Amino acid sequence: MSFPRLADRRPELTPDELVQAMTPPPMFDAVRFDTYVPNPDEPSQAAAVRECAAFAERINADGGGSWLRGMFGKKKADGGKRGLYLDGGFGVGKTHLLASLWHATEGRKAFGTFVEVTGLVGALGFAETVRRLSGHKLLAIDEFELDDPGDTMLVTQLIAKLTDAGVHIAATSNTLPDKLGEGRFAAADFLREIHAMSARFSVLRVDGPDYRHRGLPEAPPPMSDDELVRLAEATDGSTLDDFDELCDFLAGLHASKYGRLLDGVTAVHLSGVHAAPDQDVALRLVALADRLYDRSIPVRVSGQALSALFTEEMLQGGYRKKYLRAISRLTALSRDLATS
């Protein structure tokens, strides 16, 4: 029997669709500040809710989103900072807070992952991206990271242009803004740009353990290929891919399209899972894991466990936090189908 494969899909997004798609992913449609449940042992979480809500109120009270106001408006009491940066480990609810901030903001606004924002610039060009977003009151950027010099220059210039135009920017990351890029490329050569960007943000720390695994069992072990095929066949709307073939396919698809790749998929089945052979493949798997998690799409595998996707060397390197986040999210997703 032939099963639907992700590798057979050819997702496309027009520039207009890219802009229109800049909203929180489906799993965050209903989140609000009052649905965030702070860990009572972590006071920074309750404080983060208050600070994010206050930031939303300031955005709504501010004219914002205008070139003229950005150039001639009054300087803000906080030194002109229009950015809020949520820093903390994975699984503490930063994306929940960022989406809640987006929902609480009135007027034009955009929400996208770091990859989606850079993908937008690639599709529209820098000047057109600035033109389209400069009328917004808020740009929310999830999973903020600087992985290479090109991204560093692109994003620092974009943030400078947008904040000067009066746009407020909120971002989440596992790395403090002045430490972005460390361990990935020659960040020391770009310190001026990185520090100039970080100076536009107020940093809000969110501490705590990964909520996805509080008191929950470990992910189910990988299954046999026969069992994987049987369950894929029994699950309407599911896909079944060979792991290596999917990795090869992802290499030719921009990460900004990974979300569209998953449209209509109810469960993903991967056969022959093993550790990523190199950093490029590993980072594509991180991006795919994020989009699977955004859409609450469960995952089943054969071969090795999802916790073995990244080698020990990778887990000790500059992308360690990204890989641990991906393992956390994939573990949670694999649990969703464990009892099916």
From TrEMBL:
One of its GO terms (biological process) is cell division. SUPFAM superfamilies: P-loop containing nucleoside triphosphate hydrolases. Pfam families: AFG1_ATPase (PF03969). GO terms for cellular component: cytoplasm. Keywords: ATP-binding, Cell cycle, Cell division, Nucleotide-binding. The keyword Zinc does not apply. NCBIfam families: ZapE. This is Cell division protein ZapE. It comes from Saccharopolyspora antimicrobica.
